[in-house]
Amino acid sequence: MKSTTVMFEEDPILICLVVALLLASILIRNYSSRSDVQEDGTSPVPSSPKAQVSASKRNPGQWIPIDFKAPDPPPYPDWDVKLTKPLPYRPFKHGPTYFVNMGLRKGNFDDWIELDNEYLKFHAIKKERIETRGDKLCKTAPEALDAAIELLEILCDYLPTRYPSMFTRTSVGIDNTVTNERFNIVQRPLAEEPMKTIGRLIQDDIAIMVEGSDGQSYLKSGSIILPGFWKLEEKFDMNLSEIHTSGNVPQFREKLEKGMVNFFKRVMPDDMVIRHNYFMQVDDGLAWSHSIGPEDASNVGWFTAERDKVVENHWFRTERQTLRRLPRSGGVVFTIRTYFHPVVDVAKEPYVPGRLASAIRSWGDDVAKYKGSEKYKTVLLKFLDQENQRQIDSGLISEGGQSHLKYPY
Ligand code: HEM
């Protein structure tokens, strides 16, 4: 039998045929990925060919475990529980128009969980809240228990590799050598509800979505300890549409619902996506924004907040959220990492007051209402305009210039 090389040498027609086939396959691949771009202009949901095949084969609510493990992350460079500063996410854009969209971008498994020198503060607040009201904040439905345990197992692998100066992998789980906590995740029954343990390990809040036989994704497990504006107990068991419409998320039906539902059906374990959002608060409540009413009240909202509080009471809240599917259980994990700073501090950063003021002015009426701007915008915009002018006058920034730092920083 002739070798392939010899066949090619002898048959130029065959070579032309192979080249033509290769070109055609490249064209088809480019075309299909371009047709994947969403209407809102955000990045397409990354899905490998393998993932697409598995996704199209499965029935709603069914999951066939996939043999996938994210690569071990490298240690976070020079990470130190006292020195590593929170990353300065400032995910707002200059106006004139604010577009509601999913805003999903491709994420990197190495950066999945971000910890910094606010860890001990977050940990103390979480610990106190788990002790005083943990059953309301951390909960798992029986059909999501495997997903919650799978997530715990993944964290026990990820954290010691990513943050070796704080975590150690043990034969039964994980130790936190800074807080002196030891977690055994193999004993049964577990020492505590797994989402409480997860809450103690990381700064993020977590939601796990499980697909029902109707193909919708339901909130079936959560560690929602620092949510600011919403409560796990009110959204538990809801599907994605119910979660968002009950919160009056602006333009949900028109701009978000279809893409979101499709995303949850298709996301596969080897995909990870990130999105960022931002809010203003007129109090310093990381766990609960008490200016919208007491945490246990049934009817809370911006309508109860005090108007025009002095700017020293204004806080900038931004969330970095990630989504990935767990390979064994099929649950989709939603991480919510909150970064929370006084506005007066954030406004010291070059170009930030000008850009934030422009972003706030770009909100349509629906977004402004959702974000409660009536209660703070007069005071806040006056302050941001002054700070912007101060930055121009001092030569820190140029008028009309833009930060060299890439969005969302
Ligand atoms: C593709 C995924 C998702 C997208 C694009 C999305 C989008 C949004 C948007 C645009 C908002 C308005 C505030 C903001 O700008 O963030 C919002 C609010 C919210 N989302 Fe999502 N979301 C997603 C997934 C989820 C998941 C998995 C949960 C599960 C808990 C969730 C729970 C919420 C809640 C509780 C709110 C606040 C609603 C309220 O004010 O009551 N989201 N989401």
Descriptive overview:
InterPro entries: HODM_asu-like. With 409 residues, this protein is an alpha+beta fold. The chain folds into 2 domains: 249 residues, no CATH class; 63 residues, no CATH class. The chain is built from 13 helices and 10 strands. A hairpin with a 4-residue loop joins strand 4 and strand 5. The N terminus is likely disordered. The site of protoporphyrin IX containing FE has 18 residues, from strand 6, helix 8, helix 9 and strand 8. Protoporphyrin IX containing FE (HEM) binds next to strand 6, helix 8, helix 9 and strand 8.
Oligomeric organization of the protein chains: single chain
Give the domain tally.
2
N→C terminal distance: 61 Å
Strand-residue fraction? 5-15%
Q: How would you characterize the largest beta sheet?
A: 7 strands, antiparallel
Give the ordered list of helices and strands: HHHEHEHEEEHEEHHHEEEHHHH
**Total count of helical runs of at least 4 residues:** 13
Percent of residues in helices comes to: 25-40%
User: How is the largest sheet built, in terms of strand order?
Assistant: 1-8-9-10-6-7-2
The low-pLDDT segments are 1-10, 23-47
Which small compounds were modeled alongside the protein?
Answer: protoporphyrin IX containing FE
Got a strand count? 10
Q: What is the residue-mean pLDDT, rounded to a whole number?
A: 89
Q: What Rg is obtained from the alpha carbons, in whole angstroms?
A: 24 Å
Label the overall shape: globular
- Class computed from helices, strands and strand pairing: alpha+beta
